[in-house]
């Protein structure tokens, strides 16, 4: 059957960390460049914090804003040597037509875990890369089949909601 795309378990205005379930683990990390993404185990860094915005157009999507005021984005660019699929990056959100910044979710294999999907050119899942090369911490997009989605743990993310009292002050500063 076809997969049920939604935004569960995200809620508008939340601050979250996304922990990759692959062997290398690590949090989705907004690189200091304000452009790149990686996975990183340093949980306490503000780079691991993402602000959730739920957008309703024809469909409901989630937009994730990182520590440098930029948003998690899909690109059509090849991810480069040693990486699977296409490049994921940080981008400025300009208009409601920026569909490369809009994500939907399907449940992962464990309760509360999700797969983040972008549907610009084909349906692609956000994934970590470090399985065979632990030093390869890049985050990329891998195309998946709508009807027979074969998902790996590298595509599954645990959503950790940050309680209001623990939110870092001035967390979402724009890139310099």
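Q: What amino acid sequence fits the structure above?
A:
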């Amino acid at each position: 059957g076809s997969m049920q795309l939604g935004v569960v378990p995200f809620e508008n205005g939340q601050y979250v960390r996304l922990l990759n379930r692959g062997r290398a683990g690590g949090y989705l990390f907004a690189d200091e460049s304000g452009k790149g993404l990686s996975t990183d185990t340093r949980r306490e860094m503000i780079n691991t914090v993402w602000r959730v915005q739920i957008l309703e157009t024809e469909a409901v999507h989630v937009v994730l804003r990182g520590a440098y005021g930029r948003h998690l984005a899909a690109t059509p660019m090849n991810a480069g040597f040693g990486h699977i699929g296409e490049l994921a990056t940080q981008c400025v959100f300009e208009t409601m037509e920026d569909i490369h910044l809009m994500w939907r979710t399907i449940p992962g294999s464990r309760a509360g875990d999700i797969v983040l999907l972008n549907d610009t050119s084909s349906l692609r899942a956000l994934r970590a890369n470090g399985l065979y090369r632990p030093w390869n911490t890049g985050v990329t997009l891998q195309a998946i089949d709508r009807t027979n989605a074969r998902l790996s743990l590298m595509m599954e993310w645990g959503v950790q909601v940050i309680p209001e009292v623990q939110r870092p002050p001035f967390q979402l500063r724009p890139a310099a």
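Q: And what stands out in the fold?
A: The mean pLDDT is 88.
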